[in-house]
Amino acid sequence: MVLAEKEGLALINGTDGMLGQLVLALADLRELADVADVTAALSTEALLGTDQAFRAALHEPLRPHPGQGRCAANMTAVMADSPMTASHRTDCTRVQDAYSLRCAPQVTGSLRDTISHATLVADRELAAAIDNPVVLDDLTIASNGNFHGAPVAHVLDFLAIPVADVASMAERRTDRMLDVARSQGLPPFLADDPGTDSGLMIAQYTQAAIVSELKRLAVPASVDSIPSSAMQEDHVSMGWHAARKLRQGVDGLRRVLAVELLAATRALALRAPLQPGPAGTAVLAALGDVVTGPGPDVYLSDELDAVEAFVADGRLLTTVRAVVPL
C-alpha cells in the first residue's frame, strides 16, 4: 500500500478506530439479538411457559417499538407448534409467566432499537470527513473539531447498557430452570442424580459472574476526560475506552447466552417424552453433536466452550433458520 496525503492520519486516528470498533460490535450484536430471541423462546418452552404474551396484537398496535415487535415475532416463530406450549394451555393453573419470560421482547427489543440508533450514527460517521485541518470546496484551509469522537463514544456507551440488561435477563431464566421451586417439575440444577451431581449449578455461577462484570462495563466512559497537551486538548471523548469495554460486553453476552442455551436444551431433553416445537427439536439434534446432554456430571468448561463456539460460528442460527424464519 502506498499512502497518499492524509491517509497516514486516517489509519491511526482514534475516532476512526472507535468507528471500526462500533461497526464490528454492531455486526455481532445484530446476530446476538437473534440468538437472545432463540434462547429466550427455548427457555420459555422448557419452563412450560406460554407464547400468548408474544402475539403480534400485543406489540405493534399497543407499543410500537420496532425492536420489540421483531423479538416477539422471532419468539413466536421459534415456539410455533410446540407441544410444550400447548400443555400450558390445558394443564396449567398459572395466570402469567415471570417477567424474565414474558418481558423478553421488551428488553431484547430495546437492544435492537439501540442498535438501530447506533447504526444511524455509524452510517453518518462512515460518510464523514474528520480531518483537521480540512481543505474546503473554495480551497481554503480550515481548522475544525470534527475529529472529536463524542458521537461515536456516546453510542458505544449506550450499547453497553442493553447488552448488560439482556444478559441479566438470560441469567434469570437460567436460574429459574435450575431452581426446583420454580422450574415446573425439572430436577434440581438439571442434575442427573440430585444431591450427588451438581448438574449445571456452576454454569449459572459463571453467568452470574459475567453479568456482574457486564453491569460494571455499562458505566459510561464518555463522561470522563483528562486534559492533555498543555490544556489544548482539554476535553476528549474517551471513545476508545468505550469501544474496548463494549467489545468485552459483546463477548460476555455471547457467553451468557451460550450458558442459557445449554440449560434450556438440557431442560427440554429432560421433559421427554414431551417434545419442543420443530425449531427446538432441530436445535436439540444439532447440539447433541456438540455436548453430552443430560447425564452424570462431566467437566463443564469444555461443554461451555463448545456451546459458545456453536453460537459464535453461526450454527445455532443456521439450524433455527432452516426451520423457521427469523
TrEMBL record:
| Classification via PANTHER family | HISTIDINE AMMONIA-LYASE
State the species of origin. Arsenicicoccus piscis
Question: Entry's Pfam families?
Answer: Lyase_aromatic
Q: Which InterPro entries does the record associate with it?
A: Aromatic_Lyase, L-Aspartase-like
- State the UniProt keywords alphabetically: Lyase
Q: What is this protein called?
A: Histidine ammonia-lyase
Say if the entry is tagged with keyword Transcription. Answer: no
Give yes or no: UniProt keyword Lyase.
yes
